[in-house]
Amino acid sequence: MRLFLKEHALLIVIQIIQLSGVICILWLDGYRDLKLSIYAIFLGLVVLTGYLVYHYISHRYFYTRLSKPLMSLDDTYQKTETVPLSEALNQLLKAQYKYYHKQIKTLEKQQEEHLTFIDQWVHQMKTPLSVIDLTARNVEEPESSDIRAETDRMKNGLNTVLYMARLRTMEQDFHFKSVSLSTLVKEVNHENKRFYIRHNVYPEVKEESPHITVETDEKWLMFIIAQLLNNAVKYSTGLTSKIMIDVYEKNGEAILEVSDFGVGIPTQDIKRVFNAFYTGENGRTFRESTGMGLYLVKEVIDQLGHRIELESREGEGSTFRIIFSSSQNLTRV
To answer: What pTM did the predictor assign?
Structure first.
């Protein structure tokens, strides 16, 4: 109704002015019969009101449709009255819907091709890196360690690119099963042992129970733990030689903690560390920071249905806590 009145406000004003003008002309011309003037005004208003009522009733659904936002693209095909203006709008919206649907399909195809290319490219790059790593073993120290350190950095970077490319379609890549947190931590530590040695920072594992298992995706959870350990080591180098990995149960929930005793996170940065490309104050000191590691961690954890908590004090260290809810079938083997 409000939209209808706004559209016809000018018409109502013009009609009132027109009726008033006619009465004034008759009055000035000597026709000063008040009853006749009132009757003429009444007839004019009746005709105007009748037109407005008919127009509103015949276009009611049309105005209602214009007043409410579309909740989905399918709402484009809502039926309204078969009046010319409504039909024209229907045709316009249908044409627009078809155009955007075609554009979306084109973009989805391009994105799929791009992701396929990235996936193939990353796997192709890993092959020469492995060859370089094997070749470096025949090189004398310390050159050998330096080369292998750089190849490890490149491998980590390629993995980040690969997981970032898969982020939007990760639901299709999930494979949930019972996973032993203790076993998973050991595998991640084994894969990163050279990284620990190179930075002279070593993990200390503390397990309340070595047999806690949770329902999750093993591959993605390994990626999350590796990212957290990578950060813990990076921000502890030169300050401490130890980081902590705790696995325990609390209130029926399995919890995995990664704690370091390094530089910590400034208070003003804590709420933003999970934002994409945000590096904060530490990013200015540690130039290798991309701001994507913790963003990926948070996105994947949300998709897996887990939770993550962060506690940190600048100059004292940080603790990242992955929480597996009791609804995810926490069990003890």
So the answer is: 0.64
Which homologous superfamily is 175-332 in?
Histidine kinase-like ATPase, C-terminal domain (3.30.565.10)
The CA distance from 157 to 266, in Å, is 25
Host H or E run for residue 197: helix 193-199
> In the chain, where are the structural domains located?
2-99, 102-168, 175-332
Asked if 206 contacts 247 with a C-beta cutoff of 8 angstroms, the reply is yes
The total of other beta-carbon atoms located within 10 Å of residue 244's CB is: 16
Q: Assess contact for 199 and 234: CB atoms under 8 A.
A: yes
Sheet holding 253-260, edge to edge: 202-207, 242-250, 253-260, 317-324, 307-313
| pLDDT single digits (tens) 118-138 | 778 887 887 888 888 788 877
- pLDDT tens digits along 155-191: 878 888 877 777 766 666 778 899 999 999 999 999 8
Report CA-CA distances (Å) from 78 to 75, 89, 155: 5, 11, 52
Preceding amide of 210 cis, omega within 30: no
Architecture category of domain 102-168 in CATH: Orthogonal Bundle (1.10)
